[in-house]
Every structure is written in C-alpha cells, then in structure tokens.
Amino acid sequence: xxxxxxxxxxxxxxxxxxxxxDNDRLRRYAVDDLVPGRAVRATAVEDVxxxxxxxxxxxxxxxxxxxxxxxxxxMPPRRYDLALxxxxxxxxxxxxxxxxxxxxQAGMTLAELQRHLATNGQFLPLDHSHFERATLGGIxxxxxxxxxxxxxxxxxxxxxxxxxxxxxxxxxxxxGKVVKNVSGYDLPKLFAGSLGTLGVIVEVTLKLRxxxxxxxxxxxxxxxxxxxxxxxxxxxxxxxFLNGCVAxxxxxxxxxxxxxxxxxxxxxxxxxxxxxxxxxxxxVLAQALRAVREAGLDGPERTTSAIVETWQAVADLELQTRxxxxxxxxxxxxxxxxxxxxxxxxxxxEATSWIAAADSGLMFxxxxxxxxxxxxxxxxxxxxxxxxxxxxxxxxxxKRAVDVxxxxxPGARLMHNVKEQFDPLGILNPGRxxxxx
Amino acid sequence: xxxxxxxxxxxIDAIGEEAVVWHDDDLLVYEYDGTIDRGNPDVxxxxxxxxxxxxxxxxxxxxxxxxxxxxxxTGLSGGALAARGGVIIGMxxxxxILNIDPENKTALVQPGVVNxxxxxxxERHGLAYAPDPSSQRACTIxxxxxxxxxxxxxxxxxxxxxxxxxxxxxxxxxxxxxIGHDTRDEPGYDLVxxxxxxxxxxxxxxxxxxxxxxxxxxxxxxxxIYDSVRQASNAVSxxxxxxxxxxxxxxxxxxxxxxxxxxLNTGFPLDAExxxxxxxxxxxxxxxxxxxxxxxxxNRFEPREVRSATxxxxxxxLWAGRKGAIGALGQIMPNYYLLDGVVPRTQLPDxxxxxxxxxxxxxxxxxxxxxxxxxxxxxxxxxxxxxPGATERVLDAGGEIMRLCVDAGGAxxxxxxxxxxxxxxxxxxxxxxxxDAMKSLRAAFGPTENFNPCxxxxxxxxxxEAGHQHAQQQIARFGPKAFV
Lengths: 437, 484
Description:
Strand content of chain B: 15-25%
Number of domains of chain A: 4
CATH topology of the largest domain in chain A: Uridine Diphospho-n-acetylenolpyruvylglucosamine Reductase, domain 3
Structural class of chain A: alpha+beta
Helix content of chain A: 25-40%
CATH architecture of the largest domain in chain A: 2-Layer Sandwich
Oligomer: heterodimer
Number of strands of chain A: 18
Shape of chain A: globular
Number of helices of chain A: 16
Strand content of chain A: 15-25%
Shape of chain B: globular
Number of domains of chain B: 4
Number of helices of chain B: 16
Radius of gyration of chain A: 22 Å
Distance between the termini of chain A: 20 Å
Structural class of chain B: alpha+beta
Largest sheet of chain B: 8 strands, antiparallel
Distance between the termini of chain B: 48 Å
CATH class of the largest domain in chain B: Alpha Beta
C-alpha cells in the first residue's frame, strides 16, 4: 500500500488544491484510530469524480466524511488511504417552495437546511442527533429514522432523487425531482443506509412538509424506567396520531436536561409530542395523557415552549457517548419493547441510560462495559422478539471481538452481490459494513 | 396447441394439471393488461405456495423459457405481458391474509391478496392499508409491490414503498430469501426498497409484510366545480400553500365530466371546466378545522358550487365521478390510452395547456384526471382502434406528452411503471451510466436475461423492436437526451 500511496500522492497533489497530508490535521479524519494517508476536501462534484477515478486506478480505499457525527458506527475499516471531505459541497441546488421539494448538495447540514426551509414555513421531517453538524449526505448514508420515525419514517421515505459518484468515478443519478416517480429502479433507496460502501452521495432531492400550525410537548415523571415505558406504550396505543412518544431513564433524563431539555430532571420520565392544528394536537395529547394516567403515572404534567430544543436534546442523546461506555441500539416491533427491556436489564444490570421510542420500537441503552459473549447471547435471546441489536459505539477491543451489526440476515448473499456490482475493488469504506462488506 | 410441450409437461408434473393453462383459447386472457401492447405466453402456471414458485422458475430455466410474473393483470405499462413468450407465473391462487398484528400495525399477506380485501380486513382492527390505486377492487398486493403503486390517498401517506417492511422473494435463479424486517432495523442494504417498484424484474414476491396505519376517526370530502382549469389549479396551489396536507387532492376536466355525468349521475354541470376533490382525514377536531379552512380556500377562487360530505355514503357519491372516470370514458370512444406523466406541482397548469394543445394537433379527444396534489397527471387519449392510423396517432401523441413532462422537470411515469410501454423513453431522463447502474443492481439479483424480459430498459434481444417504431420516431425527433 505504501508504494501505491507514493505513486498516487503526486497524482493527488497535481489534481487538487486542497490535499492535506499533515498528520495532526489528518487525525480529525481518523476512523477507529486508523488515520488516512491523505485527505481531500471536495468543493465540486467533479472533484469527487476525479478522486474516485484516481482511487480506482491506484486501488486506494476511500472513506467519505460529512459532519463526522456517526463515525463510531460500523466495524473498524480494513484499510483507509484517503479521506474525502464533502463538507464543502454545501449549496442549495434547487428550491421551489411551492413544489415542496428541495435539492441540496450532500455536505449541507440538516440545521442549515431547516433554517433555509423555515423561511417558507416548511421543514424536512427527520430527527437526527447533532443536526448542527450532521450533513444530508451523511444522514442519508446512515439512513436511519430517529425517535419520531413512527410518524416520519426515515431518510428513505423523504428522498426522491439522488446523485452519486460510483467507486470508479462515474457520476450517476436515480429518481428525480418529482414527489411521485417510478421511472427506473429506485437507486436512492439502495444508497440510503449503504454507509458509503456503494458510492459517494453528492446531491439529494427531498420531499418537504409544511410546518405544523401547532406543536405541543408534555413531560411526566415516572417512578422507574419500566413504568415510564409501560405508560408510553399505553399512550402510543391510545393515541396513534401522536408525533412522538419517548420513555427515558433517570440518567437519560438528567443528560437531556444538561443538553437543554429543561423540562426533564433526574427522574425517569415520558415525553409526548403532538402537532397539527391546535385543537387537534391538544386532543391527541389529551387522549394520550388519559392512557398515561390509567397506566398509573400521577405526577404533574410539565410543558414548555422550547419544543425544538427539548426534543433535540433528547435526540442528541443518541450520540451522547462517553469514554468507557458502550452504546447499544435495539430495533424491534414496539409491542415487544417491555419484554426486551426486561431481558436487557437482566443481562446488563449496570446499564444506566435508557431511551425508548415506544411507538416505533427503538431503544438506546448505555452500559459501562459489555463482553462479546453477552452481546451474542443477547442477540440470540432477542431473536424471537424480532429484535436487532447493534453496537453503536464502544471500545475497539469489543468491535474486534464481535460484529457490531450482528449476524447477517438471509439477505446477505444479495448484499454481497450488490457490493460486488457497485464496488468490485472494494475501495469504498472496506470492512465497515454488514457481514464484512 | 393440442399436444403439451415438454415444458408444459414438466410444469404439470410439478404443480398439477388444473394449475397449468396451455390451450390456445385459454391463453387469450393472458395476452393483455390495461395497455395497448400485447404479449403471447406459451403457458400459464398458477402456483399455490412458495415451493411451487421455486419449482416453476427452475423448470422454466431448464427449458430456457422466459418467465413473467403476473398479478391481476390490471397494470398500465405492459409489465405483466409475456414479451418474449414463455411462462407466465400467475399469483392469484396465493391470496391469503396470513396475519394481522394490530399491536404492531402490520399485516403478513400472500401476493395474490386483493388490495381492497386487505383494506377491509385492516378496517376490522381500526387500521388501514394506505396505498389505494384506482384498480383496488381487483389489483393485488404483489402487483402493487412490483409497480410501487400509488393512488389518490398517497399524497399524505406515500406510495407502496413507504408501506412495505419485508418480503419473501424468489429470485430469477430460484433461490428464496426473506429481506427486510418488521421495523426496518435489519442491518444492511435496503433490498426491500430496491425490489418495490422493480416491476417484477428481479424476482417474484411470495409473501409481504406491510405496514398498516391508524384509521382516521373522521373524513371530510369536498368537491368544488370551476369554470376554468386554471382557477381549479390556483385553488390547488392555495390549499397546498396553506400548510394543510390533504389526504387526497384530485381533479377531473370537462371531457371527463362529459363522460361520467350521463353514466353516474354525479350532478356535474356539463359546461363546467374542472371539478376538484379534496379530502381531509384524521382526528375529528382536526378534520373539522381543516375542512373549514379548505372550504374557505376553495370558495376564494369563485367556484360555481362547493359540496361537502362526512357521511361515508355521501362521500362515496362525491368520489364516484373520479373513481368511475376511466370506465365511463367508453361512452365517448371505444378505446383509450392512459398516460402517467408527473411534473413538479407548480408546472401543472402549463403542462395541462400543453397536453390540450398536443391532443388537438393530433385530432384526439383527451380527458384529464389527475392527482393534482402531487403533480401526477393522467391524460387519457380517446380513440377507435378500428379507424386506420388511429393507434399510431395515439402513440405519437403519447410520446410527445411524455416529452412535455420531462421538459417541465418531471418524469415519464409517476405510478404506472415503465414496463414494456415506456422503456424506449427511459433515455429521456437517464444517462447510459444511470441505466448501467440500474442494470448492475438487477444483476445482483441473479441472471435475469430470461426473467421478465424486455421491461424497463430500452432494447433487448427478441423484444420486437419493430412494434416500438413510434417511440423510436419520437425519440429521433426530440433527440435522445433531456435529463431533469
């Protein structure tokens, strides 16, 4: 690899103005302690095309970077020659508010996008942690719905078009700029959630929504996380039109408080959100609260006008990882949440922070440490509950001892075929994805 | 054919005589779908379960016979036609709803389940299956998955792809696998997202796990009659700009009114130019407030009349003119050619003007009905195929209308699929590189040379290029590339 690197360095430097080879600065691009040989900051789509064709020519591995908020996700890379920084591709390409669609470059942050849309009373309905830093390209590459995915879905559900650069530097696109489109295969869906292993996302077109006339939030304390979860499940059942329905453990609530959710204190709690026209949002919340009362929570209801800040603080907890901590993510049918929670707490008595979206079956658990065997056992035990357990972040030793994604499902054969078709040399994010892809 | 071919004999051995259709007369009904194109299958096989499907595909592969999956045959792009003959695998016998899970709001169904039957079953649990194509009384979930079917109510809820969680898929090489997961938490590529809308070209879906949504507790349908399409279009823009996301936002034009009124007694004045349908649903208080606001907006654009209903029967009456539109067109002309253009919503009024202009130039009556909320227009060119040259004129005009949509920043199909019908036009919106990437996705699902051949992508061995000369003419005229 060293030879190839030396060969290509000259090529890189003659092609790009902004090639970084300074070791200290390159550390910013480290993935699982692996530092790339060079970093290139793209300022045009053509930069990405040239870089990829060079990388293909010299068999150099590339990891694309957006806001670097989710770099802990995935297995340690098998190799890592070049960092491709897309944060300079941050422009709005096309925006006609009355079409309720927008096309932006991949490096634009979610926060910047939302600010842009807010001037027209619109928004992109996606929850994502660290939205000041997270970019649309990164969010789509990770491809996950957030705490409100029950009503919002995930990036896949809002993506209507995408431009990508293939591993060999060929520019391609899929979808278009219309909200309903079945012309050709849905390549945007293939790339959403592919973690940069099939190509580099350089531009996305998204569907938008009008901002709701009214947005309301309410928090209630609970004696324990278990009772908070039970009450949140009851609320989700009784009020299916809730926009958000989250249960938090005492530590999660305290952390959220520190991040700006003043509504929460250091006690287990539930957080409910409803929106729409004012009377309707109030009605949905009232419906949910009746169920919460029946489930036994009798504390005072607290509310705030700082809805966005409160919710974002909770969403940011998804990434609030501390040193010497393992963050687990569990996804499963929502009715199975309480059983899964009991199972996890049996195996992980030291778990501290718990957050669950009770309406969509998503749960995040922090534990000071966990060994590979426990993770494997948990996965087996969660199988009958349709639970999928991933290690979101954790020490390198753990990542080396157990697959963070879990065993590949029956679709693995097809996934390897897809990878082989799009990146036959295996130069994009090698080894970080599912089943060694 | 009176003597079964070796292929037919093998198929009969595998699934029984009663499940294999091979006499010429019986094959006739499988020669067409809802389009102008025709295909001639050699044999139809009707599997009862996933194992049957695997066996059938393997037998077809052994005989080197093309395989084409088929649901109810209501498709509108020729996707279920046996373009190169061979075996049609009809999924109609696999029509059981296997499970409804009201707690987790999912349903597990076989592909032959009729869309409306799933909706009715979900309703018993206070839930709904959101995609509702106009053919929902006949079309099947398998076909909906293949085409990524939409419908009037997808404005608020999205299309089929937003509602399919997991699939059991038999690929072209006869391998079975489950892809996806109950809550989309299976790590890895979104294979379900790739299969939905792939028009039955990468495999046959044998089970589908779909998402159900809470059934709205209240629904209000409003109908407004306008003196010009522009007025109605402006009303649409105003509704959308108001921040309300209606459950449906539909329009029909004068020609459609002329067709439906005598048959369905909708009470539409025959000299009105446009009828707009708006539906809001959700919790009762929301529907009440939104309904009042929408009605206020509709009234701002000088309608002749605004009607409103919340009662199911009355609402059904308001919908009758839209839902029965296609059927009623037979009153005017014996044949129709239904297009499926899609444009950015703000382009709709201009594109409609263009559609009328093209239809007039080709001397073809045109009826327009469309999903105004999401820019999906369905111009319906009316003709009599017995009149010499009429079919050619229709196909030429259709190509020109598609081009109009592409030039307005749209696409050639919003919900009907590319299929056999529109494949020659795909290069208007995608480059060779784009299409190569799509083909490489197809290749990942196995050798597909013989699997539902001649669909989506232009060209292909033995696909009867001659039959597509009209498309070729239009492409020659406008040049091959446009790109949105």
